[in-house]
Amino acid sequence: MARVSDQARVIYRQEMAAAKSADTVETRRRHLERAHIVSQPHAKLHTRNHAAMLALAPRQHDRREALGQIIRIIVAAPGPLTGRYPEGNTGRVAAGLMTPMPIPSDLAAALVQT
């Protein structure tokens, strides 16, 4: 399992807090997606992030997203433990379960192992 840098943990906490206090659904989702990107190498943080995404889906009456997040919660821990996860993936159903995506430049530096 890859180690999550201290900087990535700080960003994860900041993004999750920002998601919790966001004024709009779009802003909340954006913060959850960014938290997802930095949480991928850590089983517990990764699973916690998908649980937060799942909590948002029913409030938006989004059954497809809710079902997709349930599936992602099931595979969230094994991915980091085996080192198999799509880097940069935002964690939403529309992103595809194993689709790698570009990592935003401000997050990329935090993902470098120290």
Mean pLDDT over the residues: 93
- For the secondary structure, the number of strands is 0
Secondary structure class reads mainly alpha
- Structurally, how many domains make up the residues? 1
Unreliable sequence segments:
none
Tell me what portion of residues adopts beta-strand conformation.
Answer: under 5%
The 3D shape can be described as: globular
Number of alpha- plus pi-helical segments: 6
Q: Which H/E pattern describes the elements?
A: HHHHHH
Rg result = 13 Å
Major sheet details: none
Please give the share of residues in helix: 55-70%
Written description of the protein model:
With 114 residues, the protein is mainly α. The protein has one domain (6-97). It has six helices and no strands. Helix 2 packs antiparallel against helix 3 and helix 3 (43-59) runs antiparallel to helix 4 (63-76). The radius of gyration is 13 Å and the shape is globular. It starts with 5 loop residues before the first helix and ends in a 6-residue tail after the last helix.
